[in-house]
Amino acid sequence: MAFSYRDLRPYKYQLLEDYEHVCEGAWARSEFDGSFLSLSREAKGFRIVVKRGYAWDGASGPAIDTPTIMRASLVHDALYQLMRLRIIPQAFRQRADEVLREISIEDGMSVIRATYVYWAVRLFASGAAK
Question: Is the Cα dihedral 15, 125, 64, 119 positive or negative?
Fold first, then answer.
């Protein structure tokens, strides 16, 4: 799965090419096309496109930026940004946190660590989505 980014300070990272991820379920109120993010409907949910140049801060809090969390943190940060923009309702924050866990496991993170990361964002990240 192609995924490339560069280290960027003070943000941390910047996406070097568009990245697409399909999220299952009817989260989004409408389709959206912004400078760095877009959403389009899919048969089973929606496709989020994080566009080239998007900057994000990797894993938050005590979590360590490892290869197993980079793609997950990108998608999670983008979903939270779409919640702040009111494109995705706040009611789907838990599902966004679950996507973080799912992608982390897909990318080789242990289930134990992925569950720890999931609970950390569940307990401490609500303000980041508002």
Answer: negative
Delimit the domains of the chain by residue range. 5-129
Q: What is the pLDDT of residues 10-40, one digit of tens each?
A: 678 999 999 999 998 877 777 899 999 999 9
- Please calculate the CA angle 29-31-32 and round it to the nearest 5 degrees: 110
User: Residue 25 contacts by C-beta under 8 Å, 6 or more apart in sequence?
Assistant: 44, 45, 92, 95
Residue 99 phi/psi, 5-degree rounding, is -60, -40
Q: Return the structure tokens found at 8.
A: 């960027």
Strand partners, 32: 39
Paired tokens of 69: 């969390």
Q: What is the pTM of this model?
A: 0.89
Q: Sign (positive/negative) of CA torsion 60, 83, 93, 96?
A: negative
